[in-house]
Design a protein that fits this description.
The complex is a heterodimer of chains A (284) and B (400).
Chain A: H1 11-36, H2 45-51, H3 55-60, E1 77-85, E2 91-96, H4 105-120, H5 129-134, H6 136-163, E3 168-176, H7 181-186, E4 197-200, H8 208-212, E5 256-257
Antiparallel strand pairs in A: 1-2, 1-3, 3-4, 3-5
Chain B: H1 2-26, H2 32-53, H3 56-59, H4 68-76, H5 95-114, H6 118-135, H7 142-154, H8 165-172, H9 174-179, H10 181-186, H11 194-219, H12 223-226, H13 229-234, H14 251-271, H15 278-295, H16 299-309, H17 315-318, H18 336-380, H19 394-399
Helix pairs in contact in B: 2-5, 2-7, 2-16, 5-6, 6-7, 7-11, 7-16, 11-14, 14-15, 15-16
The chains are: A alpha+beta (284), B mainly alpha (400).
């Protein structure tokens, strides 16, 4: 079977190369396998044991990926919105990523991934004190993950403040809902329609019921009544993407601030074509 | 007896496995495909670095989106388990140093793309890319993965041996290269090599892993089974670069595309190897990635994935003229070890021919003697045992 040229390598070198190749192949297969076998209790113990010897190798070579592109299901995009208030009190808002500003497309994608990263690592405020008694490990993990999210959020705010000296900056996460094809074909809606953008609140899960019962809570960007919008309620011409920058941002939705002020307030302008405030809970 | 019955097939299987493994990994391969892939990977890497340069301090440095301190903390265990995704870029705060570093990175990457000093610039470009990856946590996506993996495997191969500045230099400095072992390594010639094969095989295997787990993770969802995933992909405004929402009016079309994508990803790793199914699998890969490139706003990622898929193409399939190995270099440029091996191979072939000739002669002689013996027996009634077997044994003759 072996060609004369293949036998140029001595058996010893072939054996050595085979061992290196086998280790590398393990490093290719095990990280995505660990990702797939991760459950409520963490990674599969057997996969974890097999991965252990090559874990650092995979981390350094950036092989520790899951390759879950558009998986398990394509989900709504995550963005973040920043509001700037300058010294004179003038307020402007900006959505990240911005197709018009972030060009070329690769740069836009870098900003898009940043917004997705912020959403991916999001952990609600907490944990409640009782959890430290019931599940100290879980509570500690919650605290740690929340700290990570807050640090990333603060770093983004710091960056924006550095780029806009003297401005006060606050950000919040926004989800861009995708209409179902039935709704879309029955009554087409612009994909950039403001009603498809849902601001995501940064609140403890324990506070959600209280907020849901609050009768009037103005939202910066009106949210759809259901999980997905009902295009029959709206006319696509009513609102445009550009309106996002002049939208109404309620302080309680805003996640981060440069100052210690807990609830910063930003301009309130009623969105053209839809002045009625929505009261649905918008937590992800 | 039973043990022997079990042992024999196992032994045969093991022998076949080892032989197949050797053939798969260590059979030499011409470098044309890896050289072409070097150009695409190098240019894509260069483009990525140039785009990063347009907002360099937004992504690297003290006031980046993810600042240096935080980037370090995300990996050093401050927020959980530490990992080995380390980079020195966490420590560079000075914008001037960041720019100088990036300038050098761009130059090295451009040299890699052009195939200049590829033996050095390929691993350097890959290492620099790796350092950027560990620094850009939170801003990375599929493109970063595939260009890094391609660069990693290409640096193992003589990917600068053709379509490169190195090839041109080798021609220009023919005499010097011939007499200098280091230069021969630096400017490799176009010839089948085990290194080209190992790099190619690793990338092929890696692609299979990517698609397999991409498919498996999709199979865990609902939308890839009910056929609507494709709709949700094209109707995602943030990805969209070409409005394809008209497809919403054709559920049969987008659901078929969804199912094809899922099954293609799942079975890619098996169907890409047989020559019969390979063109179909690669054809769908091109179709899917062209779609991603044009409609989902990831032109760079789509292009790079298509290029990576071409690693399954044999050089002779791309250029039929390559079915005969090109004599691009004179024989006196061969390495000393190559010359020695070839001489030994030649000698072995000659010895084999001589042995064959001798066996033929002996066989003829044997037949002659047997005929003579037969005649004698018939005439004189002599017993055949007078002529012992050993007297006519060609093997013992040959051994002597």
């Amino acid at each position: 079977m072996r060609t004369p040229l293949a036998s140029r390598l001595s058996p010893r070198i072939r054996t050595l190369l085979s061992i290196i190749i086998a280790i590398h192949l393990m490093a290719l297969v095990l990280p995505p396998l660990a990702f797939q076998t991760r459950g409520m209790l963490g990674e599969s113990p057997s996969v974890q044991s097999m991965l252990f010897p090559v874990r650092e190798y995979t981390e350094f070579l950036y092989l520790n990926r899951g390759y879950a592109f558009f998986a398990p299901d394509p989900v709504p995009s995550n963005l973040f919105q920043a509001a700037f208030t300058d010294g004179s009190g003038k307020k402007t808002e900006k959505l990240f990523p911005d197709r018009n500003e972030h060009w070329p497309r690769l740069l836009y994608h870098r900003h898009f991934m940043l917004a997705e990263f912020l959403a991916e690592i999001y952990v609600a405020p907490g944990p409640p004190e009782e959890l430290f008694k019931e599940d100290p490990l879980g509570a500690e993990l919650w605290k740690q993950n929340r700290a990570r999210y807050e640090h990333v959020r603060q770093s983004i705010v710091d960056h924006l403040m550095h780029r806009n000296p003297g401005d006060r900056v606050v950000i919040r996460r926004v989800e861009h809902v995708i209409p179902s094809f039935i709704e879309f074909t029955n009554d087409p809606i612009e994909l950039s329609d403001l009603r498809l953008y849902r601001p995501l609140r940064d609140i403890s899960p324990l506070d959600i019921p209280a907020i849901e019962t609050t009768p009037e809570l103005p939202e910066a960007i009106p949210t759809p009544k259901a999980t997905e919008p009902n295009p029959s309620d709206v006319k696509s011409s009513d609102v445009k993407t550009s309106d996002v920058k002049t939208s109404d941002v309620e302080g309680s939705d805003v996640e981060a601030s440069q100052s210690t002020e807990a609830v910063p307030s930003i301009s309130k302008e009623v969105i053209k074509g839809d002045s009625s405030p929505r009261t649905e809970a918008v937590e992800s | 007896m039973i043990g022997r019955m079990l042992l024999e097939p196992s032994k045969t299987w093991l022998t076949h496995f080892v032989s197949g493994w050797d053939q798969f990994w260590f059979a030499p391969r011409l470098p044309y495909v890896v050289c072409m892939l070097r150009i695409v990977t190098g240019l894509m890497l260069l483009y990525s670095q140039l785009v990063l340069a347009t907002a360099l301090t937004d992504f690297i440095g003290e006031y980046a989106w993810i600042n240096n301190t935080l980037a370090r903390q995300l990996h050093d265990g401050a927020f959980g388990t530490p990992d080995m995704a380390r980079t020195y870029l966490w420590s560079i705060d000075n914008p001037l140093l960041i720019w100088m570093h990036h300038g050098i990175t761009i130059l090295i990457t451009a040299a890699f793309a052009a195939g200049f000093m590829t033996r050095i610039t390929a691993p350097t470009a890959w290492f620099l890319q790796l350092m950027y990856l560990h620094r850009l946590t939170g801003s990375l996506f599929g493109l970063d993965q595939i260009i890094s993996y391609s660069a990693m495997y290409l640096m193992l191969t003589p990917c600068g041996s053709c379509f490169s500045v190195d090839a041109w230099l080798r021609k220009r400095l023919a005499e010097r290269v011939e007499g200098d072992r280091k230069l021969r390594w630096l400017f490799p010639k176009i010839e089948p090599s085990v290194a080209a094969n190992i790099g190619t095989r690793l990338l092929q295997f890696h692609l299979c892993v990517i698609y397999l787990f991409g498919g498996l993770s999709k199979a865990r969802g609902e939308l890839w089974w009910d056929g609507t995933a494709m709709w949700y992909a094209v109707a995602n405004y943030e990805y969209q670069s070409w409005d394809m929402t008209w497809i919403g009016g054709y559920p049969r079309v987008f659901s078929a595309l969804t199912h094809i994508t899922l099954f293609w990803e799942l079975f890619y790793c098996a169907l890409v190897w047989p020559k019969l199914s390979r063109p179909i699998v690669i054809g769908i890969a091109i179709f899917v990635h062209v779609g991603i490139a044009f409609f989902l706003g990831m032109f760079t990622f789509g292009t790079m994935m298509i290029a990576a898929n071409f690693v399954f193409w044999e050089p002779k399939w791309l250029w039929p003229s390559l079915r005969v190995e090109p004599e691009t270099e004179s024989t006196n440029e061969k390495t000393l070890s190559d010359v020695g091996l070839e001489e030994r191979e030649k000698k072995l072939v000659e010895d084999k021919a001589k042995l064959k000739q001798r066996v033929e002669t002996l066989k003829k002689r044997e037949r002659k003697v047997r005929r003579a013996a037969k005649r004698l027996r018939e005439k004189q009634g002599l017993d055949t045992q007078d002529f012992g077997k050993d007297d006519l044994n060609e093997e013992s003759d040959l051994q002597s």
